[in-house]
Structures are given as structure tokens and as C-alpha cells.
Amino acid sequence: MSKVRAVITGIGAYVPKYRLTNEELSTIVDTSDEWITKRIGIKERRILKPEEGKGITYLAQKAIENLRSKRDFDPLSIDAVIFATTTPDYVLPNSAALITYRLGLTNAFGFDLSAACSGFLYALEVGEAFITSGKYKKIMVIAGDVLSVVTDYQDRNTCPIFSDACGVVLLEGTTEETGIMDSILRSGGNSEEHLIMPGGGSVHPASHETVDQRMHYIWQDGKVVFKYAVTRMADTCEELAKRNNLPKDDIHWVVPHQANKRIIDAVADRMNIPLERVMINIDRYGNTSSGTIPLCLWEWEPKLHKGDNIILTAFGAGFTWGATYLKWGYDFA
Ligand code: UT7
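^ thats the input. predicted complex w/ oxa(dethia)-CoA below
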């Protein structure tokens, strides 16, 4: 019997309408379009305005609408919803359960998965295991964040970077030579010292003091995170390509987490892959955490062909990082 693999059979995404440009940001903190463009590579990012009173599940539902406009499915056919996010609507209930209820996915169970910027890769891994176990046939993997709610707009070291978006893919089984071929995922390193949102968890539950001390925002030591991001992503991509006997010329696309254009350039350079084969949209959308990789795949979907070799790679708080090798499953109709 041929081996069953998990393959992406459809993709959707959504970004909020509001564009926060570098020019507008320069009126909020001491920065400039020139500095942000040169040091980070972002020109504008999308923000879910707080007055809309909506959270990540709003973006997810819009992304699912987008998916269904291209590849509709029977709500009763979905077995599970895995929602990678660090900015759920609430601590409880989980965001995946809200989606199963609102969309009438009455045969599905749903849970959130927290792995920061590596969330999409981790969720794909879990979804793949569900499919290849033979127990489940159709998994919805959602990945996205509303980072604007945990971004300190008084901190010029972080506020130009973070933004909001959500993507969704359907995972199904196939016996063809497509789908998720291999992956290397890791966690470790001292993120508490270098990349953390200290308030709101069980160590520092929300209080007047945590609010006064601005502990409900992401804090990072940018230079340290930068170095780790480059080496961890490049090393796992190298290892993955090597153990799958995948020469550089056979890699059609590298899809890196969009944290900083200089990080992307450095990873591509270390992998010796020309930038024409690297998906980059950080200039328009910024760093949307777990949303960046599905957002790239969604934008590039019309250009992808069945059988294309694609390497996804991410690094984020935790630290979490890794790389996933997949063969694209379909031609865009
Ligand atoms: O998604 C995963 C998590 N995050 C990341 O992967 C981010 C990784 N790190 C980075 O992307 C970069 O380290 C940053 C974009 C955060 C910072 O860039 P950098 O080139 O490492 O800047 P820096 O922290 O070394 O600061 C250089 C200078 C400093 O001024 P002085 O001390 O040289 O006078 C900063 O105060 O740039 C200054 N600076 C800014 N100037 C204008 C820092 N932020 C800004 C700003 N506008 N927004």
C-alpha cells in the first residue's frame, strides 16, 4: 500500500484594511521611514483597529471565507481545527472552539497551539500526524496573530515590526508524491531573557502594577534575537535539504518567517538561494507572527505548481524554530 502523506489542498488569508505607514508611525515614536526601510525592510503594516472590537477569530473567519471562495468544503467534513496563535480572543475559551461553533463544524474538535512565530510549522506538524495516523481525514490549520494588541507604541525598538494577519489551510491525505515530506522542529534557548511578554500569565497575572510597568507588551533584545533567527533558520533548512537529498537548484521556493528583511537576506545568502526564489512580502505586511508563512503562500498561490519543492522556515519566541519541506499539491485553477 502506498504511503499516505498530508497535503495542503486549499489556502485562504485575510489582512485588516487599515494601513499603518512608516510616515504615520514617525508621528507616534521617534523614527523615520528611512530607518525602518533600511534596518527592517517594512514600508507599511496592517492593523486591526481596536475600535472594531474584534480579535483574531474575526480575521480567521475572513480568511476561511476567502478559502471557501476558492475551495469550498462541507463543514461536517472537518475533523479538527488547530489554531496557532499567541493572541487568542480570550485565555479561555480557546479560539479554535469559537471557530468550530460559529462555522457549524459539529464533527470537529478544536484547540489552540502556542508557538509564537513558528506556530504555523508546529500546527502543520500536528495536523500531518493526525492525517497520517489514518484516524482523521480533513484538518483545518489556522495561523495568525493580532500583534498590535501586544505592541508598545511607545517603544521604537518593537512597534515598527509587528502587525496583524491570519491564514488558513486545509490538510488532507494523499498517496501521490506531494505534501509534507519532512520537517525539523526545535524549542530551546533563553527566551525569557531575550524575547518575552512578561505580563498576563501565571507568573505576573494582570494587575494595576503590570499595566503601569507596561508588562503586557512584547519586549525583545533585538540584536540577540536577530542572530539566533539567522543561524537557527539557515541551519535547519540546510539540514533538511541535506537529509532529503534536495540540491539547491531543486528548491523552487523558500518561505521564511517575515521578521526582518535583513534576516531573510542573510538566511537566503547562507543557503545560497537567489532572492527570486524567496517569498518576501514583509514590506507590505510586517511581522504577523504565525501569520507570515501562510500569508506568503496565499499571495504566491497562483504561481505555484503541483510538485514544487518548498521549504518553510521560522523562528520565534520560546525560542521555537524549524523548517518544513513540502511538495506543493495542486495547480491554481
Ligand atoms: O519574529 C521574531 C522576533 N523578532 C525578530 O526577529 C526581530 C530581530 N531583530 C531585529 O529585527 C533588529 O534587531 C531590530 C529591527 C529590532 C533593531 O535593529 P538593529 O539594527 O539591531 O538596531 P539596534 O537595536 O542596534 O539599534 C541601532 C540604533 C540605536 O541607536 P544608537 O544607540 O546607535 O544611537 C537605536 O536606538 O538604532 C536606534 N533605533 C531606532 N532609530 C530609529 C532603534 N529603533 C529605531 C527606530 N527608529 N525605530
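The chain has two domains: 5-177, 181-327.
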